Each structure stands twice: as structure tokens, then as C-alpha cells.
Amino acid sequence: MSTSTTNERHAAIEQLNSMIQDIDIAMFTTESQSGLLRSRPMTTASRNFDGDLWFFTSKDDPRVGDIKANSRVGISYACPSAKNYVSISGTASLVDDEQKFEALWRDDLKEWFPDGLESTDLSLIEVQVDYAEYWDHSQSVMVRLLSYVKSIVTGEPNDAGDHEELNWPRAVKQVPANDQPAD
Hints:
Elements: H1 3-20, E1 25-31, E2 37-43, E3 52-58, H2 62-69, E4 72-79, E5 84-95, H3 98-104, E6 122-136, H4 141-154, E7 162-166
Antiparallel strand pairs: 1-2, 1-4, 3-6, 4-5, 5-6, 6-7
């Protein structure tokens, strides 16, 4: 990955982290085996977003079957009080790794998993993020009011906030020229 690509990815991760780290519940969307899009609330396991999102789940949760059939998922975060909204797309995989369980475990998860790390049906969902966009309308009331008045006077849409699709470059494995497969 080039330095500029690495810098763009790092900036996108920092932007998303700042917007979602204090939001407790995300809406996690899968496609059910019957083709319906299903959004369900989930707690994000790690409060420090590094490019991947993690969620604890039960092995018998319907999401697990959905992910096995179609690993593409959507995740949305909303903080209405701060007027921040984030939509994320990615690829989900199931992870059963005791060390990762321990690294991500928080005691408040006992609400859903009373046996804690001793739960026999505990699993993790890892989501590798490949697309994200956000809406940030956190400006002061005065800035929003002025933008609203301006839109009425000029007839142009009100733009008292930021909406951005984040550039989300992924590492691309490159094969050296001398390693090309033979014809």
C-alpha cells in the first residue's frame, strides 16, 4: 500500500473512530436466508475502531446463519443528541478464538452472556469495513438557523452539515513480475 493510501486509510479510521466510539448500540444488518434485510441492535465489542468492528454473539443467533449464507453486512450508528449518523458496509466472518474473546470482553456484556467467557456458545463476528459514510449536523443552532434562512432566500438546499463518503482503500496483494504463473 502506498504512503498516500496508508494516510487516507488512517484518516478514515480516525474519523470513524471519533464518531462511533461513544455509541453503545449499532444496528447490524444481514440478509436473511429468505432474502429479507434484517437489522438488529448489537453492542460493539471494542470501543477503539481500528478498521475492523467486533461483536459478540451466540453461535445459535440467527445472524450466524445469515452470515454463513451471505457475509456482506451493513452497520449503522446514530447519535441523535450529537446529530451524527454513520453507515458502514463490510464483510463479516465468525471467529472462535479464546484469546480474542479475552481481549475484547467487558463485564457489561454479562447482560447478554451471564456465564461470561465461560459461555459455551460464545462467538465473535468480525466485520472488515470496506465502505463508510457519515452525516454530521453538529453545528450550533445559530449556524443551522442561518443555513436554513439562506436556503429559503436563495432557493438552494440547506447544507448545514457534513456528509461524506470516506475513501476506504484496502491493501491489494501484488504479485511480483517474476512470480507470474506460467501459461
